[in-house]
Each structure stands twice: as structure tokens, then as C-alpha cells.
What we know:
Elements: E1 19-27, H1 33-41, E2 59-65, E3 68-74, H2 84-98, E4 102-107, H3 121-127, E5 131-135, H4 143-157, E6 162-163, H5 172-182, H6 200-215, E7 225-232, E8 238-246, H7 249-256, H8 261-278, E9 282-290, H9 298-303, E10 325-328
Parallel strand pairs: 1-3, 1-4, 4-5, 5-6, 8-9
Antiparallel strand pairs: 2-3, 7-8, 9-10
This protein binds guanosine-5'-triphosphate and magnesium ion (MG).
Magnesium ion binds near residues 33 and 55.
Amino acid sequence: MTGPQERAKTSADEPGETRAGYVALVGRPNVGKSTLLNTLIGEKLSIVTPRAQTTRERVLGIYTVEDAQIVFVDTPGLLEPRYLLQESMLEQALLALRESDLALLLLDPTDPEETFPAAPALDALRRRRDLLVAINKIDLAAPETLDRLAAWARELFGVEPFRVSAASGQGTGELRDALVARLPASPLLYPPDEIAVQPVRFFVAELVRETIFEDYHAEVPYATVVRVEEFHEAEDPILIRANIFVERESQKAILIGERGAGIKRLGQRAREKIEAFVGARVYLELWVKSMPRWRKQPGALRLLGYAVPREQRGSGGGRSSRGGERARS
Ligand SMILES: Nc1nc2c(ncn2[C@@H]2O[C@H](COP(=O)(O)OP(=O)(O)OP(=O)(O)O)[C@@H](O)[C@H]2O)c(=O)[nH]1
Ligand SMILES: [Mg+2]
């Protein structure tokens, strides 16, 4: 992704000039960042679940009107990391903040005391002049709670927060207009008809992961990572083979379920979502494998495609168990 520094700035005041830039959507886990990204671009790109720490990597979504383009960057929640994958997630969010032209901090009024990010993210946000703040989920909170949260936000950041509901769309049009008005003068960054930047296989893996969050409880979704190993677009139906890695054999057994019932249901539901996303018939083959401690090992994280935090690079390796359990749907 092109950083703001690498782009030549032009004046947007002249006729025919355009505005464009990256807007980082940041906030604590579960405040509704991914829901807002989807609502702002009018397409379901980023996966959404009721549980915290769903998003693990940056997800880009593009909104283009005639003379302006916003590249929204959905990010993992600003959390206090306890293991390496969470460090990677936090670093991805902070990186998105650093590389963005504008930052939008989302707050959740259903948990007003806990919704402000901790340092160092909070300090990074307070230093920014181009910060916008929005209170999301206004459909779930009493007006007094919204007013109290807005007062805290004014005190901390010196700005008046927008009030939106990403779920219903209320207030999101005004928010988007405000973002467009603050974009720097720049040529469009992507072709005007593009919505996504990442490859289809990324979204396929994310849709499988979203379905795992919906179908399984407790720790299993957090210990799960999905990797698309094969994607044969020219075939009808499109043939997709994906590996689902978990950390322990016991989690593998839970995913597969009795006589494979769990993985079969998962495969069917994920396939339906993928078919809706790609607009074509899909044959999905899922393999469940275990890769012990993958969330804590730099080598394993790298192998699985996650960015490894800077100080951890260069150590450790991940191993996956051979074989696996397969389900087709
Ligand atoms: N009622 C209501 N629910 C919302 C709203 N926005 C998001 N949600 C719900 O809040 C939950 C979390 O939404 P996400 O979009 O996944 O939140 P996130 O900030 O991306 O979460 P992480 O990726 O885990 O950091 C989901 O159940 C959403 O449906 C809203 O405006 N109103
Ligand atoms: Mg998210």
C-alpha cells in the first residue's frame, strides 16, 4: 500500500482535481470497526462476529465518488497483547494508524468505561491533528450515556464525536461526507470501480473463519487459522482446498464433531457464504490439522501469513501434524 508520504500532493481547489487517502478505522476490540467498514463501502468485505478479536489483519475497502476516494483500513482491535498473535494484531493496527491520512477512532457506548484504548495507542491518537471520533452502536445506548461518553471524548481528544449506528447505517452518511471533506488532494489511489484490494483467497479464508466463530464456542475460534491452499477459479464449480489449523488435537476433535457432523455443517455454511461472495458455484474441501502453539511462535505465524512483530523476527519455527481430516461440501 502506498503511504501518504509517497504520493505527490496537488491542489484540490482547481477544477478537475481529486482528493484521496487512507482512513484507518481503529478502536478497542468489538466496537464495530468491521461492521462500519462494510456499511461505509456498501459491501460485506470484513468479517463480523459478536465476539471480540475477530479481525486479525488489516482489511482494505474502497469508497469512490466522482472526485474523491477513501481507502478505509479496518484493523484488529487495540488490545493489550498477551501472546505473539495479539502482538502482531496490535502492530498491524498501529501500522495502519501511522500510514493513514486520517484516523477514525470508534467508541462503544455499551461499555463506556472500557472503550478508550490504552497507551501507547491512546497517546498516538491524542497526538494526531487529523483524528475523528465516532460513537458507534447508538441504537443500543441511552442518550445520557452517549452524552457522557461524548464529554469524555471531547476532554481527551478535543473533538466532538460523531454518533452513528454501523448496524443500521444511521449517521454514517454524514460521517463519510466529513471524511471526504478532510481528504488530502491526491490522484485516485485505485481504479474507481474497485472495492477490494486483497486477493479473493484472503476473503475465502476469512469467511471460513467467520463461520467457525459462529459455530464454535470458547477458545476454539481463537486457536483457529484458515489457509487457502488451492483455488482453481477456471473450474465449475470453483475448486477450493483450505487447511484449518488448530493448536491441539482436542480442538481438532471438537471442530470435526461426532462422525464429522461439525466439519460438514461448517463446510456447507462457509461454502454458501463463499458462493455469495464470488458469485459462482464452489466446491469447498476443508482439512483440519493441528499446529501446536502456532499463536505464540514467530516461525508458525510467518508460515501462516501473519506479520511477525519486529522484535520477534528471526526465531522459532512451526510444525504441523501430518495428514488431517477432510470434509467436502
Ligand atoms: N446494535 C448494534 N450492533 C452493532 C453495531 N455495530 C456493530 N455491532 C455488533 O457488534 C459486534 C462486533 O462488531 P464487529 O464489526 O465485528 O466489531 P470489530 O470492532 O470489528 O471487532 P474486532 O474485529 O473483534 O476488533 C457484532 O455483533 C456487530 O453486529 C451497531 O451500530 N449497533
Ligand atoms: Mg473486526
